[in-house]
Amino acid sequence: MRDVAIVGAGMTRFGELWESSLRDLFVEAAVEALTSAGADHLDDLYVGNMSGGQFVGQEHLAPLMADHLGMAGIPATRVESACASGGAALRLGYMSVASGMSDVAMVAGVEKMTDGADVTNVLATAADQENEVYHGITFPGLYAMIARAHMAKYGTTDEDLAWVSVKSHHHGSMNAKAQFHREVTVEEVMSSTMVADPLTLLECSPVSDGAAAVILVPLDQAKKYTDRPVRIRGVGQATSAMALADRRDPAALDAVAKAAERAYKATGLAPKDIDVAEVHDCFAIAEIACIEAVGFACEGEGKDAARSGMTALGGKIPVNTSGGLKSKGHPVGASGVAQAIEIFEQLRGEAGERQVEGAHTGLTQNMGGSGASSLVHIFERV
Amino acid sequence: MAGIVGYGAYIPRNRITSEEIAKQWGKDPGSIQRGLLLKEKSVPGLDEDTITISVAAGRGALERAGIEPGRVGALYIGSESHPYAVKPSGTIVSEALGVGPDLHVADFEFACKAGTEAMFVALGLVEAGRVEYAMGIGADTSQGAPNDALEYSASAGGAAYIFGKEHLLVDVLETYSFTTDTPDFWRREGEFYPRHGGRFTGEPAYFKHVMTATERILEKTGFKPKDFRYVVLHMPNGKFPLSAAKQLGFTKEQWETGWIVPQMGNTYSGSSPTGLAAILDVADPDDLILITSFGSGAGSDSFVLRATELLPERRDRAPTVRQMLDGTRRYLTYGQYAKYREKIIVND
Amino acid sequence: MPSPRYWREVPNRYRLEGAKCADCGKVTFPARHVCPDCRSANMEAMALSRSGKVVTSTVVRTPPDDLLMESPYAVAVVETPEGARLMVQVADCDPEEVLPGMEVSLEFRLIRKEGHGGIRCYGHKAVPVV
Q: Could you tell me the sign of the dihedral formed by the alpha carbons of B83, A138, A197, A205, in that order?
């Protein structure tokens, strides 16, 4: 296995991008990534996308995207793992380069969610169709049930949830590509419309369009493309029972914990070695449960992290400096790749106002569905 | 002899008062309550229909019967609100009750009489020895047009009866059916709500059929009204059954137990069967019971029944009608009622 | 919902038929071919009781389009006495009252409709035990 580095990145703004189609979004991010790396060809392309078929009626994205990038002919694969599609694509791109099968690979993620589909219904296809969705559950509903279980078990409060959003919006206010740039208060979050009890609107990630792309090359060739490559130290991937009812504990995200454990094992690192992280905060409770699962907080103590400032910029372990899915936006298939871009920028010292001083090692954690699939990547400044 | 080996009833928990409906249409609630003797009625939730009501009542009947569901050889459901125009309610109910697939199934419709019709046929098959057990169900989510007199009464509920030859809770001593062609109330295919002949539904329809069937079954059995402990006559509103009972010579003590219409409304095919269930919930061994249904169109079925020693032992196995009438209730506004009855137009 | 897909689920939707692993005793709902705990293929049919307790719950206030008229409604994970867990709506109550620990019974209900012309899809919902 070869060491692999990210040498270029491109990303659209996230939000309601009425002028851009699914392919426009991809091309914008992909061209920017190629340009930033100075790459003139690709040996391999992975496109993370959750549901082009249902959002815009388009499947078979891989050749379409390669074609629109002017690269018809290259090997290209569309990767789906619900909201973890981007992270799953990144792992495959990493394997492609690490194995020696390709020397220049692009990993992209793209989603166009605002073209009129019933988003609630489309997202729900990532849950157990026959045993959950049939009964009328929605994604906010699933995470709300995780939240209630967490509250019952650990005493997590509505205010704890609100603090996560306050922190996300604070970080997002410094990110030009984020969907929301507005700071919010605990009171605003708590009094916003209830979506699925106990989760309020401001504790739910938005519906977004967007794309993100990175260029992967062998570490020993990275300096040809950039003087500041970021090494992918290792990755862990895991799954858990699909339906919430089949989980050991509805308050726990076992796939996330397992993916993190595998990533730590692959790298020989531990949670304390991580300087900055992006975790999958599709809902406020998800950030709380995820930072517990990846080991930034002990079980049941994730609830205090945002309020105490531990996970804010300047805190012990800044989490979601990009604004996270909550504030930056969540074009589902793109999110896993966009997380890697935030860490790429942080480790290159390019995060501007959001820069975590001296960041050397970073982590991304991406998950699909109500947490049944998850990926954890660990990155390092070279 | 054949008889009832199990029975069950179901009444939805949603209610609307006559007063709430009257207010909606600018009517005087007092005169409605006095005129029709209706206080409130049950309303099906968006998730309740003839099929779900039949399953709930049928499960109660199986519990009280204590028999293997697979031994039921026939299932008949009488309703004028079968959810499908084409596709039986009975197939869904039989799968849910686990009584199939070695089973004869049919859906019946005869306005408000379809329930006793299902019971009549079920009984006949058991008596003939064609099947070991047969279930007859009367259930409806009755329709009544907005601002029509029927809106105060048309309600939801039903009852299920299993007939067999052994371990009877109730003996069926005699039956009688009386039928003529009388167009007092009808609904054409594709129409939302039934139409009726106003006062024509009274004398030549309800009273003629209920009184004749009742008088003839008394004649046939030799019993006098005073021999009965309980009587239940179809309850299109509060007033008709009282007037018929009085003319037939029955007293308040005899009719008040089964006269559940002021609180339940008219559950159409479920009306007299649910009234009977309310009686079986309290009857003592050897009590004589008379039930006469009425279905517009028109006809009446009468049954003379006698409770056995087994009835009091079995009744606690399922909820009683009074528990459902007096238990958890959710009172709806007219707006909620309109939503629950799908009277609000929405796009597909 | 296409009717073959619905029809296939009838035993679990209508009669709460699950399975019990003959080797480790794990109860699954619906039935599975392979035990999720010990991977035994020795799964025996088992009907669940129509009762249980809420493990966790929510109130759905932004439903999918076809359940707009039902909203807001409570959904819960319910554990039956056999130890099986299932996700169901909780009906006939104020949805906000549905909280972990609530005792419920399971009743046969209409779960959804395929528009005005499609099939009617049934199953079970929980109802609070008073």
A: negative
